Amino acid sequence: MDPFKQMTDWRKNMDHFFGENFWNEFENIIKPTIPQINIYQYDHELICMASIPGLTDLNKVDIFVDHATLELKGVIDIAYSGGTVVKEEILQGVFDRRITLPFPVRQDKINATYQNGLIVIQLHRLISDENSRSKAHIRLMAES
After folding, report:
1. Is residue 84 part of a domain?
2. Is residue 67 part of a domain?
3. Contact predicate 110/119, CB 8 Å
4. Residue 87 has what pLDDT?
């Protein structure tokens, strides 16, 4: 009996029983998300570091900021050929990560640099220009 056919049949049965999206819940456990990200919070800024080894074309990574969400899209491609892979721990492939930030950030003030395999993104806290206090106007009522 073919063990791969058994595995395929087993997975089909699990999909039928639990639903086709059952495996999506386990995807991050089975395959860690890329790129790996660290975020450091200061009073009025965030420093986000994303590990993207082997990046030679900065246009292969897109960084988007929307209010309190940071999105990174791109490809990690070590592009090493030759030899037989004996061990492969550096995760590669297409990524699309959305990270919820601890506070809203300015979209007009984003600094991103790449060095030594890390993209460092500096984000600044959004401080509203609007005064949250409203002045009430007093009207004089006519005496009766």
Report:
1. yes
2. yes
3. no
4. 86
